[in-house]
């Protein structure tokens, strides 16, 4: 079955550590996205990528980094510079990134900083 | 300025009744897409329904319909014959072109928590 796989589902981090969240899709989609969700709030865009080897900052990119070396993969690193990293992180993809594309989401990764 | 507004933090509906979840949006772009997603307690985002800015008719998908009023900039979700499994968070989102047309961005509202009761 085609879809998006995010791992790990739950992750605990000590302050000062970098962590990397994995996102893999087998939908042959060109565009991929990372969103952050805080309790009781909507999703906010961290980074997005329209094609391989290219990515752009979203609304809240500070303290995060990404790479897009393969079409299928779009990992997100939460660095120690991110002041409040505890949140639910959702990866998504779409066919091409136009205004009429539906985003398909992964199941999410919940990061907790201890 | 907030681009997607959902004014109902929580709603209750009885099983088998219909319910309307409100969504208003703001954009000056003539080309945009409006989406509704459902988020159960498990956290995954499930796509429900889509309306394009140029679509003349309201979108429907099974028990879901979108009441699109372009002049009022509203895109309300109507769920007919509610079921217990419909209890979840519901997010309205707008997709608009950015970066001089080279990309698009999906902006979400803050969501409405729907509780279906017996």
Description:
The complex is a heterodimer of chains A (114) and B (118). With 114 residues, chain A is mostly beta strands. In chain A, 0% of the residues lie in helices and 49% in strands. In chain A, the strands form 2 sheets. In chain A, strands 2, 4, 5, 6, 9, 10 and 11 form a 7-stranded mixed sheet that branches. In chain A, β5 and β6 form a beta hairpin. Chain A is globular and about 35 Å long. The mean pLDDT of chain A is 92. Chain B is an all-beta fold and 118 residues long. Chain B has strands at 4-5, 10-14, 19-21, 24-25, 32-39, 46-52, 60-61, 64-69, 74-79, 88-98, 103-108, 112-117. In chain B, β5 and β6 (46-52) form a beta hairpin. The mean pLDDT of chain B is 93. The chains are: A mainly beta (114), B mainly beta (118). Chain A binds chain B through residues 31, 33, 40-45, 48, 50, 56, 58, 88, 90, 92, 97-108, 110, and chain B through 4, 31-33, 35, 37, 42-47, 50, 52-53, 91, 93, 95-97, 99, 102-111.
Summed over residues and divided by their number, the pLDDT of chain B gives a mean of 93
Strands of chain B, count: 12
Q: How much strand content do the residues of chain B show? A: over 45%
Report helical residue fraction of chain B: under 10%
Helix-strand sequence of chain B: EEEEEEEEEEEE
Q: What would you call the quaternary organization?
A: heterodimer
Unreliable runs of chain B, pLDDT <50, ≥5 residues? Answer: none
What would the keywords be for this entry?
A: seven-stranded mixed sheet, four-stranded antiparallel sheet, B: 118 residues, mainly beta, 12 strands, 54% strand
Brief characterization of the structure:
The complex is a heterodimer of chains A (114) and B (118). Chain A has strands spanning 4-7, 10-13, 19-25, 31-37, 43-51, 54-57, 64-66, 76-78, 87-94, 104-105, 109-113. Chain A is mostly beta strands.
């Amino acid at each position: 079955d085609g879809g998006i796989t995010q791992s790990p589902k739950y992750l605990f981090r000590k302050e000062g550590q970098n962590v990397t969240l994995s996102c893999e899709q087998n939908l042959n989609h060109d565009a991929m996205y990372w969103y952050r969700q805080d309790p009781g709030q909507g999703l906010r865009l961290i980074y997005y990528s329209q094609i391989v080897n290219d990515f752009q900052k979203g609304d809240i990119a500070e303290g995060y980094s990404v790479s897009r070396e393969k079409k299928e993969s779009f990992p997100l690193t939460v660095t120690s510079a991110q002041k409040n990293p505890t949140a639910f992180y959702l990866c998504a993809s779409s066919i091409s990134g136009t205004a009429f594309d539906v985003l398909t989401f992964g199941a999410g990764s919940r990061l907790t900083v201890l | 300025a907030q681009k997607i507004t959902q004014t109902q933090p929580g709603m209750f509906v009885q099983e088998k009744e219909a319910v309307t979840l409100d969504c208003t949006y703001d954009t000056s772009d003539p080309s945009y897409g409006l989406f509704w997603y459902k988020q159960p307690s498990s956290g995954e985002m499930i796509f429900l329904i889509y309306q394009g800015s140029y679509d003349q008719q309201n979108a429907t998908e099974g028990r879901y319909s979108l009441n699109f009023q372009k002049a009022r900039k509203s895109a309300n979700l109507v769920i007919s014959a509610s079921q217990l499994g419909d209890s979840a968070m519901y997010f309205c989102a707008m997709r608009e072109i950015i970066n001089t047309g080279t990309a698009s961005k999906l902006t979400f509202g803050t969501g409405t928590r729907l509780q279906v009761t017996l």
